[in-house]
Amino acid sequence: MDVLTVVSILLGAGAAFGLAWYQYFYQSTDRSRYYKLLFWLRFLGIFFIILAIINPRFNRTTLEVKKPILAVVADNSLSVKYLKADNQIQQAVSSLQNNAALNDKFELRLFSIDEALKDTTALDFSGKSSNLHEAASGLQNLFRGKNRATVLISDGNQTGGSDFVYSFGKSLPVYSVVAGDTLKQTDAKIAKINVNKFAFKGNQFPFECFVQYTGKKSANGVLQIKEGGTVVFSQNVDFNAGTDVKAVSGLLQADKIGSKVYTAVFQTAIPEKNKYNNSQVFAVEIVDQRAEIAIVSTVNHPDLGALKRAIETNAQRKVTILKPYEALEGKTYNAYILYQPNQNFKKLWTKLENDNQGIFFITGMSTDFPLLNTWQSVYNFKMSAQTEDYRPSQKTDFTLFAQEPINVDAWPPLQNPYGTISPSQNRSVLFSSRINNIETGVDLFAFAEAKSRRLAFLFGEDSWKWRLADYAQNRNFEAFDLLIDKTIQYLTANQKKSRLLLDYEKFYNSGTAVEITAQAFNKNFEFDREAELILSLTQIATNKTRKVEMPRGESVYKSTFDNLAPGKYRFTVTYTGGGAASGYFEVLDYDVERQFVNADFTKMSELATQTSGGVFLANQTPALIEKLLNDKQFKAVQKETSKSTSWIDLFWCLLLSGLLLGAEWFLRKYRGLS
After folding, report:
1. Torsion of CA 602, 605, 610, 613, to 10 degrees
2. Rounded Cα distance, 411 and 404, in Å
3. Which of 143, 216, 592, 613 sits CB 3.0–4.6 Å from 173 for a disulfide?
4. Which residues, in sequence order, are bridge partners of residue 662?
5. Confidence of residue 345 (pLDDT cuts 50, 70, 90)
6. What is the distance between the alpha carbons of residues 572 and 580, in angstroms, rounded to a whole number?
7. Is the C-alpha dihedral spanning 111, 114, 117, 119 positive or negative?
8. Where are the alpha helices (H) located in 600-646, listed in sequence order?
């Protein structure tokens, strides 16, 4: 509190005292207790009002002791139960949770991990997969910048996500507690199968199967690929002692359109503890055509490679990068991406002008905008030579196709000339633009139809950076690749727009959640937020049917089915305002959590070494507790918090002032004083 404020308070106290004295003691000889009470009531009431006018500020300091955090993460996946390690994990968690000394030193936070990190102590070991990477990222988001130790209690068998050994970083220690049998068992298993989701009728398609063997003696067996009961591929496989992995590759025939389900079986005389992992089911969808996409450009740019890779993640598409003169020759493509078109594109545009192939315009610093104005009527461009950075902002009212929200706020900007982009007709805008995080209201990524031709527009170069940003966020390219895939799907689909669109996979592994999404449109082809969609799901083998109402999300209706039994299913979505649509999928009999015969001590040990922590068996929990208690890097921190408060913010003081003056008035009237 400064000197001026102190002087003001003293002067205010003197003024309040003078006013109260003048009221009760000036020219009065009554010095009774009653008058003295009235005097003090008047003085304090006036003084508090003067304080409210001066409004001094007070600093209040509080001390708080912050304990280091001990995050205990327990594996809640099915593999723990299959290895009969569930009791070990329960006992280890209980020992840590109930240790008084540990609770005194640390703030204990208990989590479980299966598909995702959960802030709960309830363990039922029913998780369909174990994504230990999610434990690392989840804890980092929750306790960023805080002093923390992590105890991971798991069998170390990961079935989803990035490698957890390198996910926790090196700055904070992780103590690995290994649950389950760590002795290596004699076992042969099919570790992984690589195959495309789609193949084309009349062709052969490749597969690659990795067979792993662990044992003290050499062994051999036969890998067979079966379609139904027919063996369509067979090869002998020989293994050396120790741990040996053999890759077996071959070709299978795509002879008819539709879904084909295969079973890879490794047959051997080796005595094994787990025979379930000797076979694995995989499936391929046989289609009769492949969409060919041409990317036409006169400039070399990283965008071209990023677009090609994104589009070709869908095996039903093939991309060719061409110069404009090369696109004039030979075949016609299903869709064209005109990348930064300029004067060199004139002859190509003359060829395309009377066709109805979809066209994706991508502009940038090398684009001839006056020429682009003459080629299309959706936008009018008035651009300058100045460069501007445009960041994307996703529109929530986009309904042209099902598009889940994307975290585009962290995506880098695109470069485009600064100027005016004016729409001349109706279009659907997926992304609008921002400059320095200020919404411009100008389109950045949009779609339109003109003269029976479907068009897409992306205003800016450097979209390759979006693909990298997607990987930095999610450790995969799925969001960007799916966005480009749906753009190409829109451009190549010339059929009349349906009022009910479905999106789903053709195959799911057992234990995987089955998601079916739908978009419903009213007669004006606007997304119907009040639609009633009824989904009827039938298991073909049993003919059992269940009906559910599909709940609405932000831009789609979605139903999720958990724990569907392996088999074939058909479903129908009925839209009360506009017909119905049907689909078919198959749940494959493959439980990824049943592939293991022992805990992965090596991985858990590597994690402890990588983070400078420690590795313990489940029955060594007392040793872990002792190490945590003796570790001097985890100390409580005393935190001092200073908070500044003004007098007028103290509501009770103003209330007290009113009560004091009210009490004085009441007592004066009670005694008949004026």
Report:
1. 170
2. 16
3. 613
4. none
5. very high
6. 7
7. negative
8. 601-610, 621-630
**Residue range 438-470, pLDDT digits in tens:** 888 899 999 998 877 899 999 999 999 999 999
Confidence check: pLDDT of 642 > 80: no
In this structure, are residues 517 and 558 in contact, taking their beta carbons and an 8 Å threshold?
A: yes
The string of pLDDT tens digits covering residues 581-640 is 999 999 988 888 888 888 999 999 999 999 999 999 999 999 999 999 988 888 877 776
In angstroms, the CA 327 to CA 347 distance is: 10
Residue identified by tokens 């006056």 is: 370
CA distance 659 to 652: 10
The length of the chain in residues reads 674
CB-CB contact of 43 with 632 (8 Å): no
Structure confidence at residue 391 as a pLDDT band (50, 70, 90): very high
- Crossing angle (nearest 10°) for helices 302-311 and 464-474: 60
**Structure-block tokens of residue 226:** 């079966």
Are 490 and 456 in contact by the 8 Å Cβ rule? The answer is yes
Give the contacts of 180 (CB within 8 A, at least 6 positions apart): 80, 83, 84, 85, 88, 155, 598, 599, 618
**Range list of H helices, 551-620:** 601-610
pLDDT in tens, 127-180: 888 889 999 989 988 888 888 899 999 999 998 888 899 888 888 899 999 998
**pLDDT tens-digit map of 52-69:** 777 777 677 676 778 899
